[in-house]
Design goal:
Blueprint: H1 23-32, H2 34-53, H3 60-72, H4 77-84, H5 88-100, E1 104-108, E2 115-119, H6 121-145, H7 147-164
Antiparallel strand pairs: 1-2
Helix pairs in contact: 2-6
Length: 169
């Protein structure tokens, strides 16, 4: 997937000027919006990881969920959502795919409304099978970012994940 840096171009280099919104505001958002930059980075990085994992039939989002379940042991879907900052609908769709492939087991919880999820032996074996491909693309991503940026990205992701978590009262 080739990405363009259109969002970070100067207005004079764009094909046409915006006609229905504030030019100054559009320029600021295009050049400075942290959310847009992170989303662009997310799509580009995810694309690289997905390409590396494609021969194994996995996407990086699925690997993240399998790893989270491996680390958590048996968990509720809500626990997984909180740990990975995911929406329940996103997790539900991914759980369906993972369950169909036999990589996770979803079973009833302690009451009729709850469920518990765990990685299966087949899911753990799949993680082991993709570990070399993941290590290669991880190394490439670290090389692109550089050691300092990798450290700062780690700090930023923790800070934003904490800030985004709903506060329980």
């Amino acid at each position: 997937m080739a990405c363009s840096s259109l969002m970070y171009m100067q207005p004079s280099r764009m094909a046409g000027a915006p006609t229905k919104s504030n030019d100054a505001f559009c320029t600021i958002v295009a050049q400075e919006c942290i959310a847009n930059r992170v989303r662009l980075l997310n799509r580009a990085v995810s694309s690289m990881y997905d390409e590396a994992l494609r021969p194994h039939g996995l996407r990086i989002t699925q690997v993240s969920i399998l790893v989270a379940l491996s680390m958590l042991g048996e968990a509720s879907p809500g626990d997984v959502c909180r740990v990975l900052c995911l929406e329940k609908s996103t997790l539900s769709r991914t759980f369906d795919r993972l369950r169909t492939r036999g990589w996770i087991d979803v079973r009833p919880g302690s009451d009729a409304r709850s469920t518990r999820v765990r990685i299966t032996a087949k899911g753990a074996a799949k993680l082991q099978a993709v570990s070399s491909a993941w290590r290669r693309i991880q190394s490439k991503a670290q090389e692109i970012l550089g050691e300092d940026a990798v450290q700062e990205l780690g700090k930023a992701s923790v800070a934003f994940a904490e800030a985004a978590r709903p506060r329980r009262v």
